Each structure stands twice: as C-alpha cells, then as structure tokens.
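Kindly inspect both lines:
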Amino acid sequence: MRWGDMDAQGHLNNAAYLDYLQEARVAFLSQVMETGDFFAEYPCVLVSQTIDYLRPILLRHPPYDV
C-alpha cells in the first residue's frame, strides 16, 4: 500500500487493488520471460478479474508480498 493510494480517512480505493495485481502480474511475467520462451508454449490472455474483499489491507512496513 502506498501513501498516495489512500484517501483522507486512510481508506484504500478499490481500484488500487487492481493496480497492485497489475504490478504483480508485470513483475511475474518479466521473470518468466527471462527463463525462456514461455508464451510460445503457454500463450495467455487476461480475460477478467474478480476480487473478493476479505479484509482491508493497512499501511505497514514491510510491504505486503503479492
């Protein structure tokens, strides 16, 4: 969670969760691409995302792992 993602009450906008997932996906795909031609063997397309909010995430150090 980044300081700038919170509103004045300390709430995280729901859209920020999708941004976090996108950042994790890009990091994962960058690592996968370094190990070979993954997409030639396993092509993938993100079709949809669904989030079930179980509990809030809070500003903390160290940051959360995704």
